[in-house]
Amino acid sequence: QDVRVGIIGVGRMGADHVERVRTRIKGARISVISDYVRETAEKVSAETPGSRVVDTPEEVIGADDVDAILIASPGAFHRDQTLAAIAAGKPVLCEKPLAMNPQDAYEVVRAEAASGAKYVSLGFMRRFDAEYAELKDALDAGELGTPLLLNCKHRNATVLPGFDDTMMVYDSAVHEIDAISYFLEEPVVSVQTVVPRSTELAPDGLHDPLLFLFRTESGVVVTDELWVSTNAGYEVRTELVGSRGASTIGQDIGRVTTQLEGGRWGGSVPPDFRPRFVAAYDAEVQAWINAVADGSNVAARSATAWDGYVGAAVCEATERSLTADGPVEIALEARPS
Ligand code: ISE
């Protein structure tokens, strides 16, 4: 029998997930939909046979015809909705971030630990990107030696007006912060922000680009260049420099190159993260459904509530580093067993 998924929030990301479950995911169907804007939910439901619309997230979570919850509402609601799913004993895939501050995220970690079961998967889709997996496997197999540096570049074509330095941290850099957990599996102990000259294409109030420097417990340095008003396209590049070799991923997405008029030569970049990471999102959601179906609830590669807490703690320190003089130190709470 199919896993019946209830979804909270069907804006850009949520609608994308509904389409994915309807057309490409095996062993699941969307049964219940809610959105802050009821008409949006109704529009998506009309295109989703077998689904019905309810008014509130609580109704989605409590519904008898919902086995698992997908949260794609705005980040500020994620903590409460995830806690409610744990309380209802239902597995949940929550889009990032888990919470807007480390205290709230830690509360989710503790609630899940107290429940005695695993319920929470966190939507860091890059963990399911094929090149990410290849780099991770090479690192784990020792092919690159001891990790020394992780150099990340994260570029968006544009961001909405109102996107500010804080959002650059919580919305965008949070992905590289999770990449540190995924690749290096050790805590970040400090973060420093370097502010270059800004592009005139940046929205008011945003410093763009920004450079974040993280240091891990063992001394690996992570450089993270965020530039979100390139006016060009979406790019995520990652280079791991190890003692026995360096490896770069995300370089030639699509690998199509074209000769152009005027003697120019080149390729193209996707417009945003949905086409760039479609295969990763598909793999993430399929792995989640498989885990729900076999009762393990959280896929092996998935980010967990703990990863969400670490992300929130590092984001909070990174936000403070925007205005601090030197590196800002990070201390984590104990990980419940
Ligand atoms: C957005 O929320 C995402 O999650 C994208 O992956 C990221 O590249 C973008 O900067 C964020 O705004």
UniProtKB/TrEMBL annotation:
The keyword Kinase does not apply. GO terms for molecular function: nucleotide binding. Transmembrane segments: none annotated. InterPro entries: Gfo-Idh-MocA_inositol_DH, Gfo/Idh/MocA-like_OxRdtase_N, GFO_IDH_MocA-like_dom, NAD(P)-bd_dom_sf. Residues 132-246 form the GFO/IDH/MocA-like oxidoreductase domain. It holds the Pfam family GFO_IDH_MocA_C3. Keywords: NAD. Residues 3-120 form the Gfo/Idh/MocA-like oxidoreductase N-terminal domain. This is Inositol 2-dehydrogenase.
